[in-house]
């Protein structure tokens, strides 16, 4: 385990304004080079310092190599985040405003910085901004609420997906504007409102509902699926009441699509054929069916008592993992991993279960409590669990349940850590900070 001191991390940090990226830059943000193969700066500005005078504030000038370049408008300097424990970041990105990761339907597979301004796409190797993707409408002031699909942002491996009031589905490429495209919605999806709910295995899911100007017409609701590769609508089916696909929506085999149907003051799980949209079976849920997770052949839903209930591909109930007598905890959405599934509890405990029988294989206590916004991710032989800003991120060996390390930074914050992962790095951030950490 590597545990650099805060002093060492601060000593190895260098600053670069986002606008100095080779592509011309986007929204302002800072990149702090960490250890390892951090960014090489072709035009570097060094933050010289700042002081406050008794008669008024005075900010020192920003120096840079290269004569004749106009200086940017100065900003008050912010404290440099430093690693207090855990692996040394490859790079650290600091945005101009706080992230809103709760709007993402799924953890992304690359470093992105989602805020009220849009989706800032970052270079995985350097941590510099590659492109800013702006979308409408912006989130409401009282956001977040991860129990509601309103304001959710849907992304695929390389694209941001949105719909327009004019009845089009739009896709914007993360790095190549020439690869953007727009597609009109079919006639049966026109006239009301359309919402995208997620991307899963090359298919984009969503639903449309209502004709608000026709007060005498019963509102219509439809689910739909679009294959992104050739921009073909696979199906759209009507529903009697409001129903939304859940993502990750399909089991590993790809044949079963999980949806939630709202029935007054309760909800139920609906399983549909992913190829046709045909309803296969339903299962009762709690009053809001807060989450649903899909594994290789299993579907996981809340059990109504704070625990987890497993359903088989036929809809038949399997095992249940609930608080025992005298215990008080609530399970977060499980993280399926082939023959195993990991269940994190809000009290700071993670248990590993046999996916078919529910048998507990190991248990690990974390050095912090969890929040309903904490979303663990698994990569290779490691499970990464995010806590609060002060708690940090813990890595657990999936084979044994032994903790590997806990990463924290000294930056002030109030949000929960959010995670993303690719083949090389774990991207962990909170508030206005995003770190790239080595997986090995």
Secondary structure layout:
Blueprint: H1 6-11, E1 15-17, E2 29-33, E3 45-46, E4 50-53, E5 56-59, E6 63-64, E7 83-85, E8 91-95, E9 112-115, E10 118-122, E11 129-133, E12 154-155, E13 159-163, E14 168-173, E15 181-184, E16 193-200, E17 203-209, E18 221-227, E19 232-239, E20 243-250, E21 256-263, E22 266-273, E23 279-284, E24 293-294, E25 299-302, E26 308-311, E27 317-321, E28 335-337, E29 340-344, E30 349-354, E31 360-365, E32 377-379, E33 382-386, E34 393-397, E35 403-409, E36 418-421, E37 425-430, E38 433-438
Antiparallel strand pairs: 1-2, 2-8, 3-6, 4-5, 7-35, 8-38, 9-10, 10-11, 12-13, 13-14, 14-15, 16-17, 17-18, 18-19, 20-21, 21-22, 22-23, 24-25, 25-26, 26-27, 28-29, 29-30, 30-31, 32-33, 33-34, 34-35, 36-37, 37-38
How is this structure best described in words?
The protein starts with 5 loop residues before the first helix and ends with a strand. The strands form 10 sheets. A 6-stranded antiparallel β-sheet has the order 1-2-8-38-37-36, with no helix packed on it. It is built from 1 helix and 38 strands. It is globular and about 55 Å long. It is mainly β. 1% of the residues lie in helices and 43% in strands. The model is unreliable at 1-28, 32-71 and 142-150 (pLDDT under 50).
């Amino acid at each position: 385990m590597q545990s650099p001191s805060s002093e060492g991390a601060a000593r190895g940090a260098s600053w670069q304004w986002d606008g100095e990226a080779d592509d011309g830059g986007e929204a302002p943000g800072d990149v702090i080079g960490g250890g390892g193969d951090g960014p090489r700066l072709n035009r570097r500005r060094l933050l010289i310092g700042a002081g406050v005078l008794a008669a008024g504030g005075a900010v020192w000038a920003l120096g840079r190599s290269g004569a004749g370049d106009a200086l940017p408008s100065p900003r008050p300097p912010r404290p440099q985040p430093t690693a207090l424990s855990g692996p040394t970041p490859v790079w650290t990105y600091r945005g101009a405003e706080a992230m809103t990761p709760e709007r993402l339907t799924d953890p992304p597979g690359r470093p992105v910085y989602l805020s009220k301004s849009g989706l800032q796409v970052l270079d995985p190797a350097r941590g510099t901004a590659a492109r800013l993707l702006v979308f409408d409408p912006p989130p409401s002031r009282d956001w977040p609420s991860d129990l509601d699909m309103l304001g959710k942002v849907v992304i695929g491996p390389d694209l941001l997906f949105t719909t327009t009031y004019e009845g089009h589905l739009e896709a914007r490429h993360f790095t190549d504007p020439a690869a953007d495209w727009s597609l009109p919605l079919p006639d049966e999806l026109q006239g009301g409102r359309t919402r995208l709910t997620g991307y899963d295995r090359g298919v984009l899911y969503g639903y449309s509902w209502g004709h608000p100007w026709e007060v005498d017409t019963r509102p219509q609701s439809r689910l739909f699926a679009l294959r992104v590769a050739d921009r073909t609508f696979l199906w759209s089916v009507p529903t009697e009441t409001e129903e939304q696909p859940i993502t990750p929506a399909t089991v590993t085999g790809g044949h079963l699509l999980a949806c939630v149907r709202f029935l007054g003051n309760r909800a139920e799980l609906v399983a549909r054929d992913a190829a046709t949209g045909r309803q296969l079976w339903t299962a009762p849920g709690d009053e809001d069916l807060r989450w649903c997770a899909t594994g290789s052949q299993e579907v996981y839903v809340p059990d109504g008592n704070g625990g987890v209930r497993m359903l088989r591909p036929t809809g038949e109930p399997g095992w249940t993992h609930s608080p025992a007598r005298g215990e008080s905890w609530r399970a977060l959405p499980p993280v399926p991993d082939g023959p195993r599934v990991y269940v994190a509890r809000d009290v700071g405990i993670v248990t590993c279960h046999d996916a078919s029988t529910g048998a507990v294989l190991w248990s690990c206590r974390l050095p912090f409590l969890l929040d309903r916004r904490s979303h663990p991710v698994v990569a290779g032989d490691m499970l990464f669990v995010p806590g609060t800003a002060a708690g940090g991120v813990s890595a657990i060996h999936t084979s044994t349940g032994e903790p590997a390390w806990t990463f924290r930074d000294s930056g002030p914050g109030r949000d929960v850590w959010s995670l993303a992962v690719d083949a090389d790095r774990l991207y962990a951030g909170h508030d206005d900070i995003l770190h790239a950490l080595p997986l090995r």
